[in-house]
Automatic annotation (TrEMBL):
One of its GO terms (molecular function) is hydrolase activity. The keyword 4Fe-4S does not apply. The keyword Manganese does not apply. It comes from Pseudoclavibacter chungangensis. It comes from the Bacteria. InterPro entries: CT_C_D, Cyclophilin-like_dom_sf, PxpB. Residues 9-212 form the Carboxyltransferase domain. Keywords: ATP-binding, Hydrolase, Nucleotide-binding. This is Allophanate hydrolase subunit 1. It holds the Pfam family CT_C_D.
Amino acid sequence: MSAVDPAHVRIAGSGAAAIRVSSDSGDRERDWRTVHLLADALARSGTSGLIGCVPTYESVLVEYDPFAITAAELTGTIESTLAGLDADRPLHDHPRHFVVPVRYGGELGPDLDRVAHLTGLAAEDVIRLHLEPLYTVRCLGAPGGSPMLDGPAFPVPVPRLASPRTSVPAGIVSVAGRQATVAPATAPGGWSGIGSTPLRILDLTREPLVPYRPGDTIRFERIDDERFEALRGHPLEAVAA
């Protein structure tokens, strides 16, 4: 067991009903595991007054009811939970794997040529680099539980759009900075859309609303127009790794 060093953890209030816990050990993977393992342990703790936990890359926002538990009491619970964590343990013993089919370019990927220009690559090389990695879901973001992924190995970060779009359709596959994602829901957005998936990712009748969790893996797969239409509306489901 590799214990969490409290010297590398910062616990601070965040407004009247939340506490932010950050890990800064200098090891990015360890920090990511620490905050997600903490969020999971707190969620399973049954702590009275705990509303929820929102983990990201190196921090977790712990939301609580101040009429049911004080900040000092919750801080004590956080500290004792951290002391029992094994920061080298994987998030899941059996991560789930997902394959996301993508039709690149054209109306479904309106910013593919922009990304190619900004990175100094040919459009086909942008696609190739986007297809190469086995991505780990780092955390869930907006809109609708988007899987936040470490981006492709482009030679430079991809700037966000100078003027964000007021509406980006569900299924858009996009990149920004050194990150990548696929949007489960229609929403405004400023990332560069390089393709789209025909699959339905968000299901409002299901709990959880999206099928993947932080720690699961995603691979993108290139498809053509015919395959896109054949898969339109099918749900995203886990497959054998």
